[in-house]
Specification:
alpha+beta; 4-stranded mixed β-sheet; 2 helices; 4 strands; 35% helix
Length: 82
């Protein structure tokens, strides 16, 4: 089984969402950072695990939008909706 994950993120004022789906297995995960819930620690743990396993992320407009935001989140370590 591959370590490939398809992902997409959305950004709105005070709401950040990111969804992951394994490329081969029926595994789907979603994380939210908003005024209502802050799953930034769980997202960071999941991303650390993907890095540890050498996983690849596949996304639409990955280089132009999603990856720079995800990279900034990784550098920050956590986030909130503000």
């Amino acid at each position: 089984m591959s370590n490939d994950w398809v992902y997409d993120l959305e950004t709105y004022p005070n709401v950040f969402t990111i969804a992951f789906e394994h490329a081969e297995a029926p595994i789907k995960l979603c994380f939210e950072i908003s005024d209502w819930r802050n799953e930034s620690a769980a997202l960071r743990d999941f991303l650390d695990e993907l890095i540890h396993r050498g996983s690849r992320l596949i996304g639409f407009n990955n280089l132009g939008f999603d990856y720079p935001i995800l990279y900034t989140f990784l550098k920050m370590g956590s986030s909130d909706a503000i």
